[in-house]
TrEMBL record:
It is an enzyme of class 4 (lyase). This is Diphosphomevalonate decarboxylase. Pathway: Steroid biosynthesis; cholesterol biosynthesis. NCBIfam families: mevDPdecarb. Gene3D superfamilies: 3.30.230.10, GHMP kinase, C-terminal domain (3.30.70.890). Keywords: ATP-binding, Cholesterol biosynthesis, Cholesterol metabolism, Lipid biosynthesis, Lipid metabolism, Lyase, Nucleotide-binding, Steroid biosynthesis, Steroid metabolism, Sterol biosynthesis, Sterol metabolism. InterPro entries: GHMP_kinase_C_sf (IPR036554), Mev_decarb (IPR005935), Mev_diP_decarb (IPR029765), MVD-like_N (IPR053859), Mvd1_C (IPR041431), Ribosomal_Su5_D2-typ_SF (IPR020568), Ribsml_uS5_D2-typ_fold_subgr (IPR014721). The keyword Ribosomal protein does not apply. It comes from Crassostrea virginica (Eastern oyster). One of its GO terms (biological process) is isopentenyl diphosphate biosynthetic process, mevalonate pathway.
Length: 346
């Protein structure tokens, strides 16, 4: 199919978010409702971003989708759920507008690409679904709470709809009406916070998050234990963020990352996302902090071996020197630039 005058399209970029208090486990697989609330920071789009173009045309013969240049099946329940939810919102608001009604009938083409390794534990599904939802909302002229629709694509995607520091409230409602993200503070709140991403591996992870967390819910007692403690950790990190208390922020962040990976090891059969290099980075960060008598760096790992390091701007040169000393011959892409808490710009 080719574009004609009848085609309408829009391209959007979307940022990655990294959880400080992690989401791990669902109470409803279909609606993607989490067992616990989570808190994340949205990163700037200089290094990691998803870019999605969505197009409709009366000449398209069927719905189609490409991810990083490869055609994907449209028979994906989450993808279908996102598209139908956006269209439903559109119908609700614009039922008397013929032009919009036409557009809703036309076939849809989606083209999405990441400028970083997909499915390597770098939050690609979060950026990808947030981007798709945002782009579709613009195409069909829909506004309103996009976070809930992004959640239906991938849980963590609901947090990439906002910039700065974001909480995804787990909600109580059975239908998920109140399970959505909201901003805690904007990207201007803590301007000297920095994030360094150490790309230990760009290989696709062996156990995807969806299956990994499902197995944890079924088998891990430690997960049940963790769920009891999360509300307190959420309050503590909110407080550290409000006060820009880096020392506490760092400890809470590292403890939560460690707890997630302990839960993964407690899962049966165990899921291990960290590699020897990840463990070395953990030891190195604690050595740096011990030398400094206060936390200078914090690590956080998602469902993959890659490290997200948090630090303050003043400490960036020191930490980069140390990293170069310990990883002298590593790939030039090993350190993926400096990220700052960012607004969710389009
Ligand atoms: C998070 N992760 O809070 C946690 C930390 C990975 C480790 O959210 O099944 O891809 O699509 O809702 O969102 C990754 O899980 O899982 C994730 P689904 P998702 O960022």
């Amino acid at each position: 199919d080719s574009f004609t005058d009848d085609a309408e399209f829009i391209t959007c970029d979307s940022p990655v978010n990294i959880a400080l208090i992690k989401y791990w486990g669902k109470r409803d697989e279909k609606l993607i409702l989490p067992l616990n609330s989570s808190i994340s920071v949205t990163l700037s789009q200089d290094e990691l971003r998803a870019r999605t173009t969505v197009a409709v045309s009366r000449n398209f013969k069927e719905d189609k989708m490409w991810l990083n240049g490869r055609e994907q099946s449209m028979k994906n329940a989450r993808l279908q759920s996102v598209i139908s939810n956006i269209k439903r919102l559109c119908r609700k608001r614009k039922s008397d507008n013929d032009q919009v009604n036409d557009k809703l009938q036309w076939k849809l083409h989606i083209c999405s690409e990441n400028n970083f390794p997909t499915a390597a534990g770098l939050a690609s599904s979060a950026a990808g679904y947030a981007c798709l939802v945002y782009a579709l909302s613009k195409l069909y002229g829909v506004d309103g709470d996009l976070s809930k629709i992004a959640r239906m694509g991938s849980g963590s995607a609901c947090r990439s709809i906002y910039g700065g520091f974001v909480i995804w409230n787990k909600g109580e409602a059975e239908g998920g009406e109140d399970s959505k993200a909201e901003q805690i503070v904007s990207e201007t709140h803590w301007p000297d916070l920095r994030v360094l991403i150490l790309v230990v591996s760009d290989q696709t992870k062996h156990t995807g998050s969806t299956v990994g967390m499902q197995t944890s819910v079924e088998t891990s007692q430690l997960l049940q234990q963790r769920l009891q403690g999360v509300p307190k950790q959420l309050e503590k990190i909110k407080c550290a963020i409000q006060n820009k208390d880096f020392h506490s922020f760092a400890e809470i962040t590292m403890r939560d990352s460690n707890q997630l990976h302990a839960v993964c090891m407690d899962t049966y059969p165990p899921v291990s996302y960290l590699t020897d290099i990840s463990h070395h980075i953990i030891q190195l960060v604690h050595a740096i902090n011990q030398d400094n008598n206060s936390n200078m760096v914090a690590y956080s790992f998602d469902a993959g071996p890659n490290a997200f390091l948090f630090l303050q701007e003043k400490d960036v040169p020191t930490v980069i020197d140390i990293l170069h000393y310990f990883y002298p011959s590593s790939d030039p892409n090993f350190i993926r630039g400096l990220q700052v808490p960012a607004k969710r710009d389009v």
